[in-house]
# Entry
Amino acid sequence: MNKSRFLSWLYGETDVMEDILELDETSDESREQLKREKRRLRRELLRSGRAKKVIGAETKGFYALYHVVAVVSCIMLIGVLLFAVANLPRYGEENPETTEMVARYVEKGVEETGADNIVAGMILDYRAFDTLGESHVLFTALICVTILLRLDRKNMRKTYEDYYAIRGERFHDISREAIMRNVAAVLVPCIFVFGIYVLLNGQNGPGGGFSGGAVMGAAMIIFSAAFGFDKADRVFSKRLGAWVTFAALSFYSAAKGYVFFTGANHLENHIPKGTPGAILSGGLILPLDIAVGMVVAFTMYGFYNLFMRGK
Amino acid sequence: MMEWIQFIATAVCLLAGVFAFAVAVIGVARFEFVLNRLHAAGVGDTLGIFLIVLGCVIAAGFSLDALKLVLLIFFMWFTSPVSTHYVAQVEYFTNRQLEKYVRFIGEAENGSDTDGDS
# Structure
């Protein structure tokens, strides 16, 4: 029973969440209308030439190739990872990762990075390349969601408009309510100030780019939920988000590229370290924190925005 | 002497806060309907937080830490009821069998039999 239900959900025949996550009740008219609309769109899609081509490709073994490639790449990945795990040093054995590196981080961390917070020194100085990759993962995820869910005049057809009108009625919009607005008017500035504090304090204490960016993203989400998308779009539009994220990632890459280049070639690094404990300390850590925070904040807000009003 | 008074006041506040949280947890676990559970959860979110943070304020004495803790009470009391309110509102707008659990005051006498569920 359970298995067949799971399988039918897997192949998209039934919706398990039906009756649980539906937001409107009683009249099934709107739902019927949605179903009819979906069926009609599907029929239209099947009638067009491109769909036929895709279906033809499927029958010609494209799907089989897809499966084979997926299995092969999975096996290769598993093999590489198992190989790496097998070559790890044994537990308790002498190896540079557990002795020399940790000792160096603890003993020389403050002196070499200029940051009191040793974790910030590690993730944004010794291992900044890793953090750069993480920021790019966030950016890539945002791009994917944008590609899938973006909704504007270019890709919105007339036939879809009714679809969204029907769907829009089913959600209760809280942005017009006095409680939410007044609470947000008091809270949002406080949260923003706290986020900026966490962001700028990353090299001296707990905090840093990811946590500060998350707090600021939450503030943006509350603002958007309380005052509606129209007002939120005036302050942080999609365009602004894209530009800020792009600029932050470019700055991060350029700055870290400079540091890597000078370090690898034994050149002098001209970035001042400052005195540990001050706000302007830690060399590149503060600017990089700000860049990471911007990326995180706009990624969170972008996710919320796109999932709330996307397709 | 003064330290003993401080200590006892702190302990009383903390124990009372733990009691409030215990009530909240038992209520959330035992009640069946969402609005009842929200009511129970609200006890922990407001009274429990207040008592525990008050105990911490007394323990911290007159200092900057105490001010931060008072701010914590302020923000918790400011946000938690709002979120509870909206969860309750979502329940009100989306539950199909609301009449099973809730008696609307003033409607029962009018005999306005809603044609939702039989």
User: Anything to note?
Assistant: Chain B has a mean pLDDT of 84. The interface with chain A takes residues 75, 78-79, 82, 85-86, 89-90, 93-96, 116 of chain B (CB under 8 Å).
